[in-house]
Amino acid sequence: MGDFPTFEDVFERGLEVFAIILILWIVRSSLNALKDYLKTLPRFKDKPIDSYIQVFMIFSWLGGIMSAIAILTGIEFIKFVTGLGAISAVIILVFKDTIMGFVASIQVSINDMVRIGDWITFEKYGADGDVIEINLATVKVQNFDKTITTIPTYALISDSFKNWRGMTNSEGRRIKRALYIKQTGVKYLTDADVEKLKGIHLITSYLEGRQADIKTYNNANNVDKNLLLNGRNLSNLGVFRKYIDTYLKQHSAVNKDMMIMARQLAPTTQGIPLEIYAFSSDKRWENYEYIMSDIFDHLIAALPYFDLEIFELPSHGSFKA
């Protein structure tokens, strides 16, 4: 080899570069094996392991490439790295997305904003489903129609999105929907109306108690009941609201340990909103929709018994003679 110094030098440099490639391959294989192992551990199952492995791989490849270039050019590694400072702006520009993704991954992990398996809704990117992967540059979400939406990792800290983990970890899933009641149907109840409504078992005891209290108050204050407006009275809307509250509290699919409320909101041009606020015991989407539909089917069908109507815009049939 001494007779061919040029060939010897090239051969040695080639071996050194090959050694670097071999080391990078070993590091890559080791990191992938570590990633697969960590994903089998329960405590790391929902963590963005891919992001951290990719960061280590990027630094490994950068170190390997710079070492190989330094060897091939004959420049000392320290001097070569120092020289890179002059083109640092270009390097930052090239790796801008990677740097932003790396920072975002750290913030997402530290602040526990998103985990693998979380259900998130990100309207800006049309994502509504479960997070299946978090890596350095992107977050993959499998939507409920089985399509995949890819979101930039840094968007999780720069934009607003909804994470449903709180609901999943709670004891129930919220039902929050309103019935819009026609205002013209709201009225005071006469004694005959009250007696008729006492036939509804859920509110019989309530009506008896309220009727006795109202009669006692009106008699004590010498209220002239020739005009129904005078004194204290029951209204059909108020009694229906009490019926809703009682119905929800005895419904087998409603969580009794969480808030149950039937409330009246401010009147609108579409009528008076009567909002139901409760939590279903079953959080599974299909069962949740069934429970909510069952509740509102019943309440809509019950409205005529209280001489109330749902507001709806007139259709063509409404104008027929």
From TrEMBL:
A single BP term in Gene Ontology: cellular response to osmotic stress
Regions crossing the membrane: 14-31, 52-71, 77-95
Keywords, ordered alphabetically: Cell inner membrane, Cell membrane, Membrane, Stress response, Transmembrane, Transmembrane helix
GO cellular component: plasma membrane
GO MF entries: mechanosensitive monoatomic ion channel activity
PANTHER family noted in UniProt: MINICONDUCTANCE MECHANOSENSITIVE CHANNEL YBDG
Name this protein carries in UniProt: Mechanosensing system component YbdG
Superkingdom of origin organism: Bacteria
Domain Mechanosensitive ion channel MscS: from-to ranges: 97-165
SUPFAM superfamilies: Sm-like ribonucleoproteins
Annotated InterPro entries: LSM_dom_sf, MscS_beta-dom_sf, MscS_channel_2nd, YbdG
UniProt subcellular location: Cell inner membrane
Organism name: Algibacter lectus
Keyword Cell membrane among record annotations: yes
Lineage: Bacteria, Pseudomonadati, Bacteroidota, Flavobacteriia, Flavobacteriales
Record has Cell membrane as a keyword: yes
